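Posting this for the archive.
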Amino acid sequence: MSGWYTQSVTLGYRQERGLRQVGQSSTGGRPVSVSRTVSAPPERTTEAYTDLAARGRWLPAAGSAVRAHRPGRSLSADGEGGTSRVSVHLAAGAGGRVRVGVGHARLPDADAVAVYKEFRRERPTAPEGLLKH
């Protein structure tokens, strides 16, 4: 049996026995991600996450601190006071649009995953109103 099938069987066994939940990573965390296309330049999009004043207008004060930042390309930040990790990746598209992918890793449980998914449904990945040229 190939490695992929072996891993699939192992995962199914662990989930069936209650040793691992659906969506749970091998390290125990629960990652979740969303992506959106916005009408804004990539550099302005990363500003919405890195500029404290801009971020405060659309994200709740959740104690996030930017760890690494490549303007117009990506950033990573601590979330929830350092217990989780947020990654933002950008890809420039046609017509001044940019594809924004936001991942949230190290979420503690399935309830936190549900809260994060609902939050991302209610708010855009990047606040276009703040990002106009």
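The helical segments are 3-16, 42-50, 52-56, 110-122, 128-131. The radius of gyration is 17 Å.
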